[in-house]
Backbone:
């Protein structure tokens, strides 16, 4: 398995003695090539410091990390050639057009003058801002500015995009456009790392997530694996809707192995908590008893649910 990012006990401490603040605390992270990954956590969790270290903008206090196999201290310039970074609050010159801003950024990235127009046009096309290329940025909406921010990360045609709070302050339509763009870029083979506290907006995009709190990763892994882990620990919740005889079915379900609790929500709805997925057993019992099931659903916790449980547990 090829990892784009690998960290080993990566740590950043600001200050010393009693004034010392540990922003990133012995972090271990592995991100596979070609996926959309999310580092999720509240403001102040250490997300921004982590990505600043990964891109060579902040030196670690201890530990190590590699990006594309390059050491973040020794090979930071090589890493920056392969990474497109959109920092939180990234700004443009308002009195310049989108095209002029991107041309300036292309020059800063040492892209030859003969290639700049082509690169700028491709970046604007990728984020659907072609028709606004010659409009001054001060006339852009927040969503358009964020898309222009992503365009500036694409100037180098990077293999990895790192986006810090990319949907902060963006309206629902802008957030939808952002999601579509991320899927499109990922389909083109780019690995994407999104750092955010807005789980409901960005979380569903991710294949892999790491939840960060006070400088540490408290949960990380593939989204499906994390959800299953939580359900194995806290129990599976299943809702069953029947045409009639909910009470009869409830009595029979309560006898099944692994059942923790069965509640009748109304005449035709049952809410079940179990130590394992018992949907097949419920269907079998209902068939035996002649009870018609209209729907049966396993209620999975959302990333936001998991985040809040982890956060409240850590606070306790």
Residues:
């Amino acid at each position: 398995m090829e990892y784009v990012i690998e960290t080993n006990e990566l740590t950043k401490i600001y200050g010393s003695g009693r004034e010392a603040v540990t922003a990133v605390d012995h972090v271990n992270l592995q991100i596979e090539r070609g996926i959309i990954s999310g580092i999720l956590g509240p403001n102040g969790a250490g997300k921004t410091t982590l990505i600043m270290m990964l891109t060579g903008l902040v030196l670690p206090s201890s530990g190590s990390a590699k990006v594309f196999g390059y050491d973040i201290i020794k090979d930071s310039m090589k890493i920056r050639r392969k990474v497109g970074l959109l920092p939180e609050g990234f700004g443009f010159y308002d009195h310049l057009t989108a095209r002029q801003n991107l041309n300036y950024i292309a020059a800063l990235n040492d892209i030859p003058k003969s290639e700049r127009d082509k690169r700028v046009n491709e970046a604007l096309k990728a984020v659907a801002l072609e028709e606004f290329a010659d409009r001054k940025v001060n006339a852009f909406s927040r969503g358009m500015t964020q898309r222009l921010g992503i365009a500036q990360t694409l100037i180098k045609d990077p293999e990895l995009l790192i986006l810090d709070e990319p949907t902060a302050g963006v309206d629902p339509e802008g957030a939808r456009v952002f999601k579509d763009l991320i899927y499109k870029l990922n389909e083109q083979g780019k690995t994407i790392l999104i750092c955010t506290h807005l789980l409901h907006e960005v979380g569903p995009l991710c294949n892999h997530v790491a939840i960060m709190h006070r400088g540490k990763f408290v949960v990380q892994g593939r989204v499906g694996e994390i959800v299953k882990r939580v359900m194995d620990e806290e129990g599976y919740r299943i809702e069953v809707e029947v045409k009639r005889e909910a009470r009869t079915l409830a009595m029979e379900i309560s006898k099944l192995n692994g059942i923790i609790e069965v509640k009748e929500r109304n005449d035709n709805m049952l809410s079940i908590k179990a130590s394992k997925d018992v949907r097949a057993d419920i269907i079998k019992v209902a068939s035996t008893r002649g009870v018609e099931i209209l729907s049966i659903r396993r209620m999975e916790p959302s990333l936001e649910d998991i985040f809040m449980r982890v956060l409240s547990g850590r606070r306790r």
Q: What stands out?
A: The chain has eleven helices and 14 strands. The CA atoms of residues 208 and 221 lie 6 Å apart. The chain has a mean pLDDT of 89. The longest helix spans residues 172-187.
